[in-house]
Design goal:
single chain; 398 residues; alpha/beta; TIM Barrel; seven-stranded parallel beta sheet; 18 helices; 47% helix; 13% strand; globular
């Protein structure tokens, strides 16, 4: 039976319904929805008239081409700032339930494409679904973020079961399949991005048991018992590789590694726990899928951003809010795309502040491979109309 969530139709069908019979639910829109979102065209013309054989803008940038105006998408572009997302989240009844219900997760993945016409659709999920799929207890407490059963010794490691990852995460891979089919049918210019957390950041949560300002327990374990911490990192390298490969097999065209807490480490530890594991994952993925681009986000890497780009061999490096784009352009090899790095708070402010910041980034990046994005995830207080303003600025080329 079909039911409306806000203005978005969602079809309730069993999980084992073939994907091909479900792809049409995602792009049904009532007359006027696109105009209301600040876009042009009609639901029937969302493909943008892409010519046969033409490469998608995001893939062109990731291939080293200086596309202009640059392609764009936003980290956390599907989220609580959108009323249509809040409606689906309420229906799902919980965050993990939303991540593991393919029809709903695919719907929220596509919502910002429908509303803003972004060039990239990033899978709606969470970096902590990998430890969850291996059996670590995980819950998302309202107002507190993730809560995990901490792992700080060999016994905790032994309780994890990476062989169960693909089976338990199967709904996530089904979300990828559903979304890719829907995009190919209705928005063929849009690139589907899969992702995972990088080993250091995921391990930090697994050891700490929750979010933290300094992840003291994880950092201390890395110093005091590097053998145990190293086993956890190696386990995560293998599990993350398998998780990304499954997403690629399901239809992800690009994958991204989020190392949100990379900047907490001094250079020696950054090289050991951020660069080396990420490089290992890249080698593993590229061995089987050499043409799949990989975006790395070593948040707060600072002057190590160039070394990260060179040693991991990523196709693009995402810059955080604190990174000077002109420094990054000098430090990162010219063939490696840069992504970023608007301050999410300027997006909340909107108006002249948003326009000034966005145009400065565009000016700094012109002439090199670049993807416009934020320097961190979009905030829930962001007015949706400010994202519309940003899209217009970026589409104008600055």
């Amino acid at each position: 039976m079909d039911a409306w969530i806000g203005r978005i139709p969602v079809v309730h069908r069993p999980y084992n319904t073939p994907s091909s019979s479900r792809i049409l639910i995602f792009f049904k829109m009532k007359p006027g929805d696109i105009a209301e979102a600040g876009l042009s065209g009609s639901p029937e013309s969302m493909d943008g008239g892409m010519a046969a054989g033409e490469r998608k803008p995001l893939l062109r940038a990731l291939g080293g081409e200086a596309v202009w105006p640059p392609p764009m998408w936003l980290m956390r572009q599907a989220g609580r700032y959108l009323p249509e997302y809040r409606a689906v989240r309420e229906k799902a009844g919980g965050f993990i339930a939303l991540c593991t219900t393919p029809e709903l997760a695919s719907e929220v993945t596509i919502q910002p494409i429908r509303r803003y016409g972004m060039d990239g659709a990033i899978l709606f999920s969470d970096i902590l679904m990998v430890p969850w799929a291996m059996g670590q207890g995980l819950a998302f407490a309202e107002g507190e973020g993730p809560v995990l059963d901490p792992i700080r010794d060999a016994a905790g490691l032994a309780a994890l079961d990476p062989t169960n990852l693909r089976a338990r995460a199967a709904p996530i891979f089904e979300t990828v399949r559903l979304t890719r089919a829907a995009l190919e049918a209705q928005a063929p210019r849009v690139t589907l991005i899969g992702f995972a957390g990088s080993p250091w950041t995921v391990a930090a949560y697994m050891v700490e048991g929750r979010g933290s300002k300094d992840f003291r327990a994880a950092r201390s374990l890395a110093y005091e018992d590097p053998a145990t911490f190293g086993r956890l990192i190696r386990l995560l390298v293998d599990a993350t590789t398998d998780y990304l490969l499954a997403q690629i097999e399901a239809g992800a065209e690009v994958v991204m590694l989020f190392d949100s807490w990379a900047g907490m480490l001094p250079p020696s530890q950054f090289r050991r726990w951020v660069i080396e594991p990420s490089a290992a994952i890249l080698r593993n993925v590229k061995r089987l899928h050499p043409s799949i681009p990989v975006i790395g986000f070593p948040r707060l890497a600072g002057p190590l951003i160039g070394e990260y780009a060179q040693r991991t061999a990523v196709s693009a490096v995402a810059m955080d809010t604190a990174m000077d784009p002109r420094f990054a352009a000098r430090a990162v090899p010219a063939h490696v795309a840069l992504q970023g790095n608007l301050d999410p708070l300027s997006l909340i402010a909107g108006g002249v502040a948003l326009e000034t910041e966005a145009r400065q980034i565009l000016a700094a990046m012109r002439g090199r491979p670049f993807i416009f994005n934020l320097g961190h995830g979009i905030e829930k207080e962001t007015p949706p109309e400010h994202v519309t303003q940003l899209v217009r600025i970026v589409r104008s080329g600055g």
